[in-house]
């Protein structure tokens, strides 16, 4: 009901990333798994078959492997803005683990919340934002109000009387 | 930053408008005046933003109502106590308070808005052409009138009347002066005595 | 734990005649019906939470203290992430702070190792930082002078000072990943340490790859911080009308004439005045304001912005791919506001002397 209970934020671009050059915001990613437990089998499969592709494509991301006994598999991503995101990878197929790793690579480290607006700019207008005097003649500063000329309804077109008087004048 | 501050001040500034209600219909005037009060004439309008302007109306004593409205248009009032209901025709209300009809017309047009009372506070009504200097100094623009004021026979000079071309000839036994005679009934003859205001 | 079990058993045996639906609360000796949860659990959890708060927050540790850390890999990735190929030795040197070197020296003294016999093979980053700062400083000024050719020198200095403060460079360094790589004694890392490290990175790039690459780096990371920032606000002009008068007089134009354009609500708090400045009956600039004086001052500032060609409708900065073939004049010097005012005073004095004599 209240509109400030659900977290939401404006869009942010960390350090004008992409304006000069694009810097991958993922700093390091840690794959945690158990060497023997069956719950980590997909993770071990991923590490054997898919992980090296990821490391070769992204030399700027440091990849760590952390074997932990009797613990479920997970990935921990650390971003350049200091934030840390953990995701559990139990019962996730290797393809899905690939997708989540790629998801982490593509993120800016900002927390995912509802967007207030899907655009943001500090310079909304180059021609200037409208103001009440934008299209008004500066003569209004000199006019004395009330002004009967400005107040009266402007006549558009000829009335029958005008037409009649014109005809008479012609003759 | 300082420039942004003054630019924001300029965009959201309140302008003061003046309106001459002489010979104007109060209901059609209210349509136009409430547009300015709410701020609908501005491209930066939003209901929640306080973007309405001030409107100064003068000559409210000289408004014009169509047809039988002076007699048939009623203003109702209830004091919220038992037996506190009363109603009055427009002409009676106008006698007592010459600004009330236009005020009520604007008030009724703003129905449904949360900030109706704030908007009504920004409407300044004066019965005649006397407006205080402090208010006149604030005014920056004039709202165009709603109805063209027709030129009455009294407004024509004798020279214009004489020089106007004769379109047709009247028959000799036609009574030309008959329009000058009174032919209107006493008001309120149709209602029973109990409901007539004293 | 054991004591509580014994207590419950003792209670059960003593009150075994009571119906099973009732459990006696040992706390208040009230009869309470059995519920689907342990009643002690909430109080226990609250107690534990309060104890955790009393102990205080987790100690801040360096990233290198955790198990998943490999300095060599991190150094390599730092270069790759920025899209630059550094020499590893220069890059390592760029992150070594002076405090770290001194710390190492002290440790060796404490352990009794002679420094002359076993010299420290660590060099700190102060030299690299100086080189990097010199390059960054000069390039920023050159770039600004070329992009805004009509901007006064004081304005350009103000923008340059804003971009090269410790705070700004530390902010950039943090978001580029320098914080974890820095070797220094104190933790958390100071702003000055971060900015020195960033300057040293630029210096390292300058040494390894040459001036052009280093300049591209400065353009991509330092100058982009000007985007969405109003550069006119960075330089505070004390007397804009005076400067405008001097400029116009030296350009041979008439004196600036402020005129009221529009006003609204003169008697109210929400009063608004629009003042325009004219010179030789030609319009220069206009601005709104709460009072006439404010509007006049702001209009003078707008006029100066227009003369400097840095108003809000200016073209965007040339960065990224568009700036790759940018030809900059390194020897350019922009006009100085002080010079203008000096010349104006000389001119007005000479005119006065000539008129009196």
Automatic annotation (TrEMBL), chain A:
<keyword id="KW-0689">Ribosomal protein</keyword>
<dbReference type="InterPro" id="IPR007741">
    <property type="entry name" value="Ribosomal_mL43/mS25/NADH_DH"/>
</dbReference>
<dbReference type="InterPro" id="IPR039927">
    <property type="entry name" value="Ribosomal_mL43"/>
</dbReference>
<dbReference type="GO" id="GO:0003735">
    <property type="term" value="F:structural constituent of ribosome"/>
</dbReference>
<keyword id="KW-0687">Ribonucleoprotein</keyword>
<dbReference type="GO" id="GO:0032543">
    <property type="term" value="P:mitochondrial translation"/>
</dbReference>
<dbReference type="GO" id="GO:0005762">
    <property type="term" value="C:mitochondrial large ribosomal subunit"/>
</dbReference>
<dbReference type="Pfam" id="PF05047">
    <property type="entry name" value="L51_S25_CI-B8"/>
</dbReference>
<dbReference type="InterPro" id="IPR036249">
    <property type="entry name" value="Thioredoxin-like_sf"/>
</dbReference>
<feature type="domain" description="Ribosomal protein/NADH dehydrogenase">
    <location>
        <begin position="35"/>
        <end position="108"/>
    </location>
</feature>
<comment type="similarity">
    <text>Belongs to the mitochondrion-specific ribosomal protein mL43 family.</text>
</comment>
<keyword id="KW-0496">Mitochondrion</keyword>
<protein>
    <recommendedName>
        <fullName>Large ribosomal subunit protein mL43</fullName>
    </recommendedName>
</protein>
UniProtKB/TrEMBL annotation, chain B:
<dbReference type="GO" id="GO:0003735">
    <property type="term" value="F:structural constituent of ribosome"/>
</dbReference>
<keyword id="KW-0496">Mitochondrion</keyword>
<comment type="similarity">
    <text>Belongs to the universal ribosomal protein uL13 family.</text>
</comment>
<dbReference type="GO" id="GO:0005762">
    <property type="term" value="C:mitochondrial large ribosomal subunit"/>
</dbReference>
<keyword id="KW-0687">Ribonucleoprotein</keyword>
<dbReference type="InterPro" id="IPR005822">
    <property type="entry name" value="Ribosomal_uL13"/>
</dbReference>
<dbReference type="InterPro" id="IPR005823">
    <property type="entry name" value="Ribosomal_uL13_bac-type"/>
</dbReference>
<dbReference type="Pfam" id="PF00572">
    <property type="entry name" value="Ribosomal_L13"/>
</dbReference>
<protein>
    <recommendedName>
        <fullName>Large ribosomal subunit protein uL13m</fullName>
    </recommendedName>
</protein>
<dbReference type="InterPro" id="IPR036899">
    <property type="entry name" value="Ribosomal_uL13_sf"/>
</dbReference>
<keyword id="KW-0689">Ribosomal protein</keyword>
<dbReference type="GO" id="GO:0017148">
    <property type="term" value="P:negative regulation of translation"/>
</dbReference>
<dbReference type="GO" id="GO:0003729">
    <property type="term" value="F:mRNA binding"/>
</dbReference>
<dbReference type="GO" id="GO:0006412">
    <property type="term" value="P:translation"/>
</dbReference>
From TrEMBL, chain C:
<dbReference type="InterPro" id="IPR036389">
    <property type="entry name" value="RNase_III_sf"/>
</dbReference>
<dbReference type="Pfam" id="PF22935">
    <property type="entry name" value="RM44_endonuclase"/>
</dbReference>
<comment type="similarity">
    <text>Belongs to the ribonuclease III family. Mitochondrion-specific ribosomal protein mL44 subfamily.</text>
</comment>
<keyword id="KW-0689">Ribosomal protein</keyword>
<keyword id="KW-0809">Transit peptide</keyword>
<keyword id="KW-0687">Ribonucleoprotein</keyword>
<keyword id="KW-0496">Mitochondrion</keyword>
<dbReference type="GO" id="GO:0070125">
    <property type="term" value="P:mitochondrial translational elongation"/>
</dbReference>
<dbReference type="GO" id="GO:0004525">
    <property type="term" value="F:ribonuclease III activity"/>
</dbReference>
<dbReference type="GO" id="GO:0006396">
    <property type="term" value="P:RNA processing"/>
</dbReference>
<dbReference type="InterPro" id="IPR000999">
    <property type="entry name" value="RNase_III_dom"/>
</dbReference>
<keyword id="KW-0694">RNA-binding</keyword>
<dbReference type="InterPro" id="IPR044444">
    <property type="entry name" value="Ribosomal_mL44_DSRM_metazoa"/>
</dbReference>
<dbReference type="GO" id="GO:0005762">
    <property type="term" value="C:mitochondrial large ribosomal subunit"/>
</dbReference>
<dbReference type="InterPro" id="IPR055189">
    <property type="entry name" value="RM44_endonuclase"/>
</dbReference>
């Amino acid at each position: 009901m209240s509109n400030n209970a659900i977290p939401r934020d404006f869009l942010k671009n960390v350090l004008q990333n992409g304006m000069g050059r694009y810097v991958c915001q993922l700093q390091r990613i840690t794959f945690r798994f158990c060497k023997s437990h069956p719950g980590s089998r997909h993770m071990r499969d991923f590490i054997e078959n898919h992980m090296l592709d990821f490391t070769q494509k992204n030399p700027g991301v440091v990849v760590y492997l952390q074997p932990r006994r009797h613990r479920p598999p997970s990935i921990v991503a650390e971003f350049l803005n200091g934030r840390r995101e953990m995701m559990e990878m139990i019962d996730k197929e290797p393809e899905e683990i690939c997708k989540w790793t790629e998801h982490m690579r593509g993120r800016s480290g900002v927390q995912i919340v509802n967007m207030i607006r899907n655009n943001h700019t500090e310079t909304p207008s180059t021609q200037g934002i409208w103001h009440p005097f934008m299209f008004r003649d500066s003569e209004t500063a000199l006019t004395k109000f009330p002004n009967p000329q400005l107040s009266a309804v402007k006549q558009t077109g000829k009335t029958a009387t005008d037409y009649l008087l014109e005809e008479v004048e012609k003759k | 930053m300082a420039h942004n501050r003054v630019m924001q001040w300029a965009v959201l500034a309140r302008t003061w408008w003046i309106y001459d209600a002489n010979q104007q219909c109060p209901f059609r005037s209210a349509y136009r005046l409430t547009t300015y009060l709410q701020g609908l004439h501005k491209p930066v309008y939003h209901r929640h933003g306080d973007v309405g302007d001030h409107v100064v109306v003068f000559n409210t004593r000289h408004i014009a109502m169509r047809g039988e409205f002076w007699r048939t248009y009623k203003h109702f009032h209830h004091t919220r106590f038992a037996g506190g209901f009363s109603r009055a025709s427009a002409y009676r209300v106008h006698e007592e308070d010459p600004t009330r009809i236009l005020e009520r017309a604007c008030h009724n047009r703003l129905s449904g808005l949360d900030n109706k009372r704030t908007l009504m506070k920004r409407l300044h009504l004066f019965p005649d052409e006397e407006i205080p200097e402090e208010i006149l100094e604030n005014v920056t623009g004039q709202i165009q009138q709603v109805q063209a004021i027709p030129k009455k026979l009294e407004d024509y000079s004798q020279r214009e009347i004489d020089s106007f071309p004769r379109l047709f000839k009247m028959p000799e036994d036609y009574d030309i002066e008959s329009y000058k005679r009174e032919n209107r009934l006493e008001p309120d003859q149709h209602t029973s005595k109990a409901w007539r205001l004293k | 734990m054991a004591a509580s079990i014994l207590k419950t058993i003792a209670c059960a045996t003593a009150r075994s005649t009571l119906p099973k639906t009732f459990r006696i609360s040992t706390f208040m000796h009230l009869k309470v019906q059995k519920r689907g949860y342990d009643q002690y659990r909430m109080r226990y959890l609250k107690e534990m939470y309060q104890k955790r708060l009393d102990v205080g927050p987790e100690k801040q540790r360096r990233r290198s203290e955790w198990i998943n850390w490999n300095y060599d890999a991190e150094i390599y990735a730092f270069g790759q992430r920025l899209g630059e190929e550094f020499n590893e030795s220069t890059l390592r040197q760029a992150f070594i702070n002076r405090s770290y070197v001194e710390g190492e020296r002290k440790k060796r003294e404490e352990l009794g190792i002679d420094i002359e016999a076993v010299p420290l093979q660590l060099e700190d980053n102060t030299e690299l930082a100086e080189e990097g700062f010199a390059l960054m400083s000069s390039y920023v000024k050159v770039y600004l002078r070329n992009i805004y050719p009509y901007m006064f020198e004081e304005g350009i200095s103000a923008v340059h000072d804003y971009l090269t403060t410790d705070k700004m460079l530390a902010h950039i360094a943090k978001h580029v990943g320098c914080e974890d790589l820095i070797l220094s004694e104190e933790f958390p890392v100071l702003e000055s340490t971060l900015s020195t490290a960033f300057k040293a990175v630029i210096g390292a790039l300058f040494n390894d790859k040459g001036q052009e690459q280093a300049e591209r780096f400065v353009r991509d990371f330092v100058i982009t911080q000007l985007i969405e920032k109003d550069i006119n606000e960075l330089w505070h002009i004390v007397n804009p009308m005076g400067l405008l008068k001097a400029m116009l007089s030296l350009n041979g134009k008439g004196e600036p004439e402020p005129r009221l354009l529009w006003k609204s609500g003169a008697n109210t708090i929400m009063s608004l005045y629009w003042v325009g400045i004219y010179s030789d009956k030609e319009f220069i600039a206009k601005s709104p304001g709460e009072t006439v004086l404010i509007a006049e001052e702001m209009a003078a500032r707008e006029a100066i912005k227009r003369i400097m060609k840095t108003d809000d409708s200016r073209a965007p900065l040339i960065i990224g791919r568009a700036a790759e073939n940018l030809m900059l004049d390194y020897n350019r010097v922009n006009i100085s506001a002080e010079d203008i005012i000096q010349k104006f005073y000389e001119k007005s004095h000479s005119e006065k002397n000539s008129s009196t004599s």
